[in-house]
Amino acid sequence: MKQKMKIMGMALMMGASATMMTAQPREKTPDKIDYYNYLAYRCHEKGDKAGAAKNFLLYLEEPQKRGMTQAQQDSLYMADRVVYDQAAVNAMFLFYSVGDMDGVLKTLPYGRRTSIPITNVYLTSMEAAKEKGMNDLYLELLREAITKFPDNSSFVDKMMEYYTAQGDSQKTQAGLDELIAQNPKNAELWYAKGVLYFNDKDNPNANTEARTCFSKAIALDEEHAEACAAMGNTYIRDVVELRRKGMFASVFSGMNETRKKSSYQKDLAEVQTYYFNAQTYLRMAKALKPDAYDLWGEQLLECYKILGRQQEYEALKKEMQEE
Question: Which residues of the chain, if any, have pLDDT below 70?
Answer without folding.
Answer: 1-31, 254-262
